[in-house]
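Final report, closing paragraph on structural work. Over the funding period we assembled a curated collection of sequence-structure pairs, and we close with a single example.
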Amino acid sequence: MSTPTVRRRRLGVKLRALRDAVGLTLDEVAEKSNGALTTAKLSRLETARTAAKAPDVEQLLDLYAVEDAELRTALLALTRDGGRRGWWHSYRGVLSPVYEDLISLEAEATSIRTWQMGVIPGLLQTGEYAREIITATAMSAAVEAKVDALVEVRLARQVVLTREQPLDLWAIVAEGALRTRCVGDGVMRDQLARLHSLSKRPNINIQILPTDAPPHVGQMGSYSVLGFEEHTDLDVVHVESLTSALYVEAREQVGAYRDAFERLRAAALSVEASVERIAEIRESA
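Its predicted structure, as stored:
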């Protein structure tokens, strides 16, 4: 049995919520499906133990009387895209399943709210800065051998910012991350110049949390909230650590991370003042 992906878990949770909303048991749904769906199969779909097929999901949405066109489209996209080969599949020997999940979610998300304590967000990095960060944080010879490929992946991910309907990115970055002493000559100056340039895009907002800020909720760690249009119950939080990553999917917990982000926005410099701070730090880099 394959390991459930974030996409499958999100779909399963939503299908369970829709069933609960109409007050049906698994047995009742199986009966209404005229034998097309068994109780066991429904259970496996809701617990993400098996991948869903589009016809099954369409039938369930009909049984649950889901008329919201956008919700139907979103859930069917979760189903169909699970079998789609994205550009990242060509890096199958390089990427962990968790990293593949992140890339596929970024490709589907309409917004990302990210807080970073120690580094510039990956979607805003230059190639040389990405190389230094990936190299510095590699904790095994296996990762060290993949640096070139991992840099390629990081830069390829950035296409979401310039696609036909670009991702809405709001990034809050600790000022200390902008003052990193990179080994390569001019690496940090180029990175700060890129931040300054990207901040002018209408779909990108960057705020800097100054080093002299009082204690704040962001001190508990970096994270990103990936949003999916109006259906916030499909949102996911990505929390990355040195050797692994965690996905937070429970609605209440995702809500707590959203609230924390709002606190960070209030504590950080304004977008306008942040652009000025980036320019000032670049001049002294």
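Residues 58 and 76 are 7 Å apart (CA to CA). DSSP finds 13 helices and six strands in the chain. We thank the funder for supporting this effort.
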